């Protein structure tokens, strides 16, 4: 509360006709930038502490857990159609019998690894640019445009992994299951377009 009172006083000091609007926006956004940085620091620290107390068999499962966590947390924040589709969940919804899934399972493993790389890269772009993007809301410049394009490119990379593996998985499944899989994928990938 004290921190916000100080910000309130600082913002009031800038009021009037000759107020520096860029400075005012920076003051208003500062707590959001600081809170986001603090949340990320706490999340990283928590995950490191959890990993530190795991036994050897659990440590072996940690990379898979982190990929699943990243998928669950990062996929839904996609902004492009097809970017937020989770092919692992879609495969589960398809109800393919284990014998019919044999050719698709290695592809799912490769998908999980490639998707994780793309999600991690997108997350790093977001973390690196979060504060500067908020500050650029006051006065957009070429740097803000470059950061926006960097984010779009990271999103395209995630979406492209989904598109590529959706077709590979469809082809690896028996026809009836492949068609069901691709229908579920299209529904998930383009659901916002269908609603609009």
Describe the structure.
It is built from eight helices and no strands. It has helices spanning 2-13, 21-52, 56-74, 87-94, 104-136, 142-172, 175-189, 191-195. It is elongated and about 70 Å long. The model has no long low-confidence stretch (mean pLDDT 85).
Q: Could you state the order of secondary-structure elements as H and E?
A: HHHHHHHH
Number of strands: 0
Number of helices: 8
Report the span from N to C terminus: 41 Å
Q: Major sheet: size, sense and barrel closure?
A: none
> What number is the mean pLDDT?
85
Coarse shape? elongated
Share of residues in strands: under 5%
Spans of 5+ residues with little confidence (pLDDT < 50)? Answer: none
The rounded Rg comes to: 22 Å
Helix content: over 70%
**What structural category do the secondary elements indicate?**
mainly alpha
Topology (elements, then pairings):
Blueprint: H1 2-13, H2 21-52, H3 56-74, H4 87-94, H5 104-136, H6 142-172, H7 175-189, H8 191-195
Helix pairs in contact: 1-2, 2-5, 3-5, 4-7, 5-6, 6-7
Summary keywords:
single chain, 196 residues
Short note summarizing the structure:
This protein is mainly α and 196 residues long. It contains 8 helices and no strands. The protein starts with a helix and ends with a helix.
